[in-house]
Amino acid sequence: MAVSGGASKGPRAPRRGGKRRPKVCFYCVDKIDYVDYKDVERLRKYISERGKIMPRRVTGNCAKHQRQLTTAIKRARFMALLPYSVD
């Protein structure tokens, strides 16, 4: 009788690495209430090399500031401060 679901390599190998640093919201730490769409250098940190907005689980932002960040990046793109895609 064949095993369904693919090849099994036995028990899972333990994961490597130590403790991960907890992600904190940059805007909450610096007590910045408003994400400014004109602050292009700061917004570029949250855009991937392919031009996509990085998700919250990667950036560590809180939900409030991630929403503001997304809106600010979209505004900056519309105002031609940031590119829509990277060539």
UniProtKB/TrEMBL annotation:
What biological processes does GO assign it? Answer: translation
- Comp. bias (Low complexity): 1-11
| Top-rank lineage group of the source organism | Bacteria
Looking up PROSITE patterns in the UniProt record yields: RIBOSOMAL_S18
Keyword rRNA processing listed? The answer is no
Cellular component per GO, a single term:
cytosolic small ribosomal subunit
Q: Name one GO molecular function term.
A: structural constituent of ribosome
Keywords from UniProt, A to Z, are: Ribonucleoprotein, Ribosomal protein, RNA-binding, rRNA-binding
User: Known Pfam families for this protein?
Assistant: Ribosomal_S18 (PF01084)
For the region Disordered, give the residue spans.
1-20
Q: How does it assemble?
A: Part of the 30S ribosomal subunit. Forms a tight heterodimer with protein bS6.
Q: Which family does it belong to?
A: Belongs to the bacterial ribosomal protein bS18 family.
- Function field: Binds as a heterodimer with protein bS6 to the central domain of the 16S rRNA, where it helps stabilize the platform of the 30S subunit.
Q: What is this protein called?
A: Small ribosomal subunit protein bS18
Organism (species) = Aminobacterium colombiense (strain DSM 12261 / ALA-1)
